[in-house]
Each structure stands twice: as C-alpha cells, then as structure tokens.
Amino acid sequence: MSPTEWLLFLIELADRADKLALQWFRTRDLRIDQKPDASPVTEADRAIEAMARQLVHERYPEVGVLGEEQGDATGSAGTRLVIDPIDGTRNFVRGIPVFATLLAIEAGDEIVAGVASAPGLSARWHAARGAGAFRDGRRLHVSAAPSLADALLFHGNLGAQEGGPPPGLLALLPYVGHTRGFGDFYQHMLVAEGAGDIAVDPVMHPWDIAALQVIVEEAGGRATSLQGERSIRAPSLVSSNGVLHEAVLHALSGKPAT
C-alpha cells in the first residue's frame, strides 16, 4: 500500500480512538492503574490499543503492531502499526485536554504515515511521506526563524520525575528568545505548525516518536534525538524548524551555540 492509502487507514483508527477517549475523558469512574515505571495507565489507554490491534488483525493480518500497552506483535509483511493510545495520560486523568492518540505505519525502517489526533482540542495532525503535513486540512510549514535569539522553545516536565529536564537544557536556554512548557505531542505539533521553533523531550519511546517524526519532517522540519540520531528507537526527541537544529544540538551537548 502507498503512504496515502495507509494514512486513510490511520484516519479511520483515529476516528474510532477519539470516540473511545471522549467516553472516559473527565468521567469520575475512570479506572487508573500504575505501571512498573510509575506512569499511569487507564482503561481508555487499554481500550484504544485493543481496538486498533483488533482492526489491524481483521484488515491486515500480516501487519505487526507495536504499542505502549501491549508491546510488539510481529507480522510477516515487514510493516507494522505503531501506536500510543493516549499520549499525555497524566493530562487525560486530570481533565486537561492536551492528550492525543498517536498512530503511525512503519514500512521497513521508515515511517511512511502518521496521525496525531487530539479530540480534547478538536485537532488532528497527519502526514504521508512525500505528500506533506496537515492540520485539519491546512497544509503545515515550520517557521523560518533564522536564529536561536528569535526562537520560541517548548519543553516538557522540569520536575524530578519523567526523566526531568535534559542536562543540556539549561545550557540552551540563555540562547533562545522565549520558552513555553507544553510537553508531550503538542509541542512538536506546534513546531510543525510554525507556532514555535524548537521542542525538546528527554525521554521517549518508539510509539511516542513515530507519528511526530513524519509530521514534523513533512512540514519541513527535523526530528532527531538529543544526540542527532534520526530514529524512532532513539531515547529522546528534539524537533525544530531545521534551520536551528544543529545549533540546538550543539547547545544541548554543552557546546557553544552557533
């Protein structure tokens, strides 16, 4: 299947996931458990991933699935769905509408299509490799900010949990013009939209990265680890408008920004 055809399937999954997420969002009887890493998981997370796995099995039984809650189910086609059923679960359980289902198709070693669907914000971002990135039908382009002094930097948690801030963040901050703390998927989608210029996540997993990578790149930006590795298996994620990327990585590594 082509990236565009896969994208249509992801959009169908996202439609179903949105309905499930909103059934539980801001309900008093939401069941919340704690995983071994102390992060929360809800019945909504589990239901969305189970739904996606079932639909993949029915439509494309040869396709594998890699998900946050149920791990890796290997397929025979060299293609798999990568899913984070609710990115921003801490927001979800506290009634904050900044959460999303992240869906991507990995063919070989490349992410060919991705969707980030945020029903609490009534927003959806998507991209197919080679066909551009969009938010609700509007073509996305990263910013043209030419220097760190002009840049708006997004970051996530600065507390002791969730990995805390990356060691190089304090070294980067003096070079940038402005900062905001959005975190999770949303900061990277804002970079793809051109609403900001840099987003930094120190602790990531393949299901966190996959959809975001293709959307940022199709909007004209870059998405790598803190060390510059372009891989969904990298342990961190830095997205940018591309122009600033090398300067950001230098500063994060403790070297003078350029």
Structure, explained:
A hairpin with a 4-residue loop joins strand 7 (110-118) and strand 8. By secondary structure, this protein is α+β, with helices and mostly antiparallel strands. It folds into 2 domains: 3-131, Fructose-1,6-Bisphosphatase, subunit A, domain 1 (Fructose-1,6-Bisphosphatase, Chain A, domain 1); 148-252, D-Maltodextrin-Binding Protein, domain 2, CATH 3.40.190.80. The chain starts with a helix and ends in a 6-residue tail after the last helix. The model has no long low-confidence stretch (mean pLDDT 93). It contains 7 helices and 15 strands. The longest helix is centred in the N-terminal third of the chain and has 22 residues, at 3-24. Helix 5 (184-193) runs parallel beside helix 6.
What distinguishing features does this structure have?
7 helices; 15 strands; 8-stranded mixed β-sheet; Fructose-1,6-Bisphosphatase, Chain A, domain 1; alpha+beta; 2 domains; 5-stranded mixed β-sheet; D-Maltodextrin-Binding Protein, domain 2; 258 residues
